[in-house]
Amino acid sequence: MTEYRRAKIQGASYFFTVNCAERRGNRILENNIDALRHAFRGVKQKHPFKIDAIVVLPEHLHCIWTMPAGDADYSMRWNLIKSGFSRLITADEKRSDSRIKRGERGIWQRRYWEHVIRDEQDFERHVDYIHWNSVKHGWVQRVSDWPYSSFHTYVRQRIYPANWACESDKLMDMEE
Predict the structure, then answer these.
(1) 22-75 pLDDT, tens digit each
(2) How many H helices and E strands in the chain?
(3) Residue 171, Cα to own-chain centre: how many angstroms?
(4) Which of 5, 53, 92, 152 is deepest in the core (most CB within 10 A)?
(5) 3-state DSSP percent of the chain in helix, strand and coil, to 5
(6) Which residues are catalytic?
(7) CB within 8 A of 108, min separation 6: which ones?
(8) Which own/partner contact pairs does 139-144 have at CB distance under 8 Å and 24+ positions apart?
């Protein structure tokens, strides 16, 4: 079996995309947002990391984490978050034969996407992508209308204006 290779840089910032196993018509993350928050909080207390930006959509999420100095073990953290969330919600999802055989729930895709943030421009581009994602996928028409996003924190901190991405030229930049 081929080993999946991931970048592991201690103290680095990473962009992640984590998907549910079932994407179509699935609103499991949105419908269980408190359980997801609880899973994140529990892992952060025992294994600290900083969430720089996040958006939780009904069936996937994007985020940027900055790992502590001397630590690059985001894989363990994701495993704990995914399993912690899975234990907190009712087991009524469809499961494949292979998942049943392995004793796995059918909530999450086994893998996830990670990208090491290279510089400040890369960081800003990924933060913008995260915050634009609810509009991109058609869940809302304005970024400010999606409740499960760090966009609201960025507005409170005056990093973004409340009407961010409402101008047509900004919309064009987000789609590129």
Answers:
(1) 878 789 999 999 999 999 999 999 999 999 999 999 999 999 999 999 999 999
(2) 7, 4
(3) 22
(4) 53
(5) 40, 15, 45
(6) 148
(7) 18, 19, 20, 21, 82, 86
(8) 139/57, 139/58, 142/166
